[in-house]
Amino acid sequence: MKTSLDCVPCIIRQTLEAARLVSPDHAVHEHVLREILHWVSEIDLNQPPPVMGQRIHRLLREIIGQDDPYRDAKEQQNRMALALLPELRTRIQATDDPLIIASRLAIAGNVIDMGVNGKVTESSIYESVSQALTEPFVGDENEFRSAVAEAQSILYLTDNAGEIAFDRLLIEQLLPARVTVAVRGNPVINDATMTDARTVGLHEIAGIIDNGSDAPGTLFDDCSQEFRRRFSEADLILAKGQGNFETLSDEPNNIFFLFRVKCQVIATHIGQPVGTQVLLRSRANLFKT
User: Fold this and answer.
1) Residue ranges of the domains in the chain?
2) For 71-281, which CATH class?
3) Which of 33, 141, 173, 213 is the most buried (most CB within 10 A)?
């Protein structure tokens, strides 16, 4: 997916919000903003938006001298999400369709996204769970069930900390022995890393790898050879979040995207309103860029 002109003001807004979140120093805010304004003037619009996101957060980490400025926020998000799991497991166990309910809850967790919302709260997570269980989502449930049933190997691409605990609920329904979970190779925003995967106990039920990259999406040229091999060999890929959709929506692999539509660019791209819960299969001829 290419970067839209409408992504540009959003990139600038996110830059300033991120700078204010990780540093109280006004000079830092101005420095980062000026750098990004310069970069934006030269941006390659043929690249997906996470390319710019990667540059922004590399600059932030360099300026403030921290390798993971969102660490405290991620730890809090993991704790909030883990506290909800017993109640959510009970809901899954009480339903006649645990796979779809677990999928809905995994999508609910996508609200924990500090690239879009710098102030994720427990109440916003509860609201997202309620919406996920009661509102319709876009996607073919039967097609998803069939794909899951037929797959011998599943690669699960995670998105954010906190959200990764909700992912565990879905992975538990996928026969975890055939699942490999992929996290970011290095910190970026509040995206999940190996530390977050272990915090929510994913290492207890599935294999875990990192993709070798610090992009808030999946940029193949920036990923490790091992990740690329796993990606090409997987029968089924489940990709969480808008960043993975933006970077992988044109891929011909057997991919299902699970996310909440958070901006008008994506809403226009898939023909659904902002706030829609999405469970879509990748079809290169369906997603026009």
Assistant:
1) 7-64, 71-281
2) alpha beta
3) 213
